[in-house]
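step 3/5: co-fold with zinc ion
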Amino acid sequence: MSWRPITLVAVLCLALTVPGTAAADDPPPEVEQRAGTRAPAEVHGLSEPAQAGDPVAAAKAHLADPRYHLDPADLAPLRTVVDGADETVRFAQRHRGVPVFGAHYLVHFRKDGDRREVVGAGGRFLTELTVSTTATVTGKTAARIAHTTMIRDHRSREGVTAQDAGLVVVPGGAGQLAWHVVLTGRDAVAKKPLLLDAYVDAHSGRPLFAVDRLRMEGPVTGSGQTAHGRTVELNAYERADGAYELRDRTRPMWDGTDGEILTYDAAGRTFFDFFTPGIPEGTELVRSATPVFGPEHTETGAVDAHWSAGQVYAYYRGLGRDGLDGQGGTMYSVVNVTADGEPYTNAFWDGTKMVYGGGGDYHSFAAALDVVGHEMTHGVITHSADLVYIGQSGAINEGLADYFGNAIQVDTYGIPMSDPNASLLGETLCKTAPPEECAGRDLGDGRVAGEDYLGFAVGYDNGGVHYNSTIFSGALWDVRETLGGAVTDRLVYKALTEYMTPLDDFVDGRRAVESAARALGMSARDKLTVARAFDRHGIRPGWERALRTDSRVLIDGITDRLARPDVAGDRYVISNTSPDALSPSVILTGRIGGGKPVRLSEGERWNSVPVTDGRRAAWTSFDAAQEHYQVHVRPLDRSSPPELVFDAPSLVDSVAIDGDTIVWDGVGADGEHGVWVKRGSAAPVEVTAEAAVHGFSPSLKGGRLAYERYWTEDGALRSAPAVVDLRTGAETVIPMPAGSWTVKPTLTGRHLVWMYDADDDGRYGIMRAAPDGTRRAVVVQDGPQAPRPNWFDANDEVATLGLWPDGSGNEVSNAILPKIHQVPLGGGTPQRYSCNRGYQDYFASGEGRTVVWLDGTDGNTDLVTRDRPAPRCRTGS
Ligand SMILES: [Zn+2]
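step 4/5: write tokens
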């Protein structure tokens, strides 16, 4: 049964009408195309003789056929998977020698003795790449750009370092040459570790996107059984000095590749120490004086981690795989890590090893076999389809980790699939909470793509990889409930290792599973079970249909991840790129009342953070020499060309404009973040020239400038709103208590309005004052119930803020995404503004109650507007 429109390619049909190659009841070969490339997404039903000998050479010879439209010289072999008579060769695409992000292509053979036959091929190969692979931006510059632009909160940048890691070609149209930059450190605001793979255009310097490498699991609430009282056999190693360590050399991989299972005790060291590949110096294998590893090793999680790693190895061995990398490579686990001495209740796979924390109400995260299986499956995925940890491919990655994690647990413990806890992930982690409360996710939650997909912006949970995973894994788990573990695990494993590719979306993932089912020769009835499971979870072509909204679209399809609107009167300004996100971003302006936006910026520079006073726009750009930032100004009516008003050696973060005055913030020649003001044709003056005074987020109105002022006092960092009277130069720093944080002081004309966090809990109150800083008043009180904003703006009438709703811990719905609220400056409770169900991101406050914002509800990001708050939203929206 075909579930997807099939495009038959004429050449292929001709090539395949060779008499006698197909039995009478074989369906004809089918080809599925992929938009934007001439190489087929999938070809199946082939039956063509292939070269004997080296499978890589045989696969390349097959792909040399013109119907594939690809040059085998551009294919670098990754690995060959053998599954009984099936042999699959996986390649990664190169463009002029540079790796192409996420482009894998596979060839499927069937072997019968020495005879080898091609039965199919497919994946992702980009035939239209023409981009030059000579970088004009240096790796060092790219690293600096990634560091400043990819980390949204400047307080988080302090503890993060950036390192360039080589060139890649990013897919789309002609392709885009990019520097891969690795950002490592600690996010001081989110208070969690950070390990990002960022990509910066190597020709324009424009930041493209970032992928979170840490497979952090979502917060798991609750706790379960005793830890867990089960006596297990540990494969340990007796050292020459008579001590025993957790070193397992009994696995088949030890004979082949010297692969071992090693378990280390971090002895409470902080998790940051374990980010670099491998095991840091000074970390010891778990050791005991006797072969009985005592209660102290139960407490740290060492016993569980070591035993469970062995179970995971044995499970994948049963599927024909030798270790996580499939090559018998050593499997590393580290237990007993903390968050700077505090309990670190999480676990992660960093690409080379497992790291487990625990404490408080939680056992070690190694104490749940499904969690161990989940994390280690990320290792298997890395070494097979390598699904990109972002959006739908990221959700499939998470979903497969959950599927196999749970499969390993139920098989190892003999739990029947009908057990209500079988579908729960991490349900045994808790010391006291019951399983259903302790579990992080439930593969039986019955979520359906169209109804339940969460419209995350990519800045949060990589576009919802943990929150959307059960839509896909739920379908697989349904199949397992019907067809059983033996058949289904093999099916899913085959799909992962022989059909999926890094950028697969849900529909691609379904196709991979159905292709694997066909390759396994599953019965029509079983294939129907698979199809129905995906249907039930809404995974069908075209499921991302438009959803209802209560806003008016100003620009359909914002593809610039740095886009942020500004508004004055009826005019808005925003940056955007082309629909394929390949062109340098341009500055657009339009009227909130309607009409087509027009372009303000010129040339091929990357343009960003536009602002307007209703008459002119100001914005920043990266100059043609790739080493300088610039500030430009242009009238909104385009009566004169853009005027260059400042040329800076380093990044300009934000700009504000009012009449003939322009202010901006960025990093100066001294390496410190400051605020500059330029009045008319005079040279710019740094407002924050005083040593060790930093400034951020300037605002400008009525002859005054306001900014976030940071300075050190008595060894502690302080912040407060500062107002400068531009006529006299007098500066007023509004007194704020030590330990409180100030964000985005905004001059509205009649008021100065800002957010403050007095107790450093990420919740913010709102204050206002007269523009000269006098007559201070609280609009919304800070405290444990205060709002958790993701953005903020104000006018003379209202403060507008994007709020993370306070939800119950495990609730998964669009209701947990940030929504715009408004509160009158006279005080009150912030009220919901639009009932759109998805992510309501950056916004600007216009006249009266008008707001212009970026909205993720209807399947992509649009610039939208309303002119008044929504009367009442249905629950769940
Ligand atoms: Zn995961």
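step 5/5: annotate
The pocket of zinc ion is lined by residues 215, 217, 374, 378, 398, 401 (CB under 6 Å).
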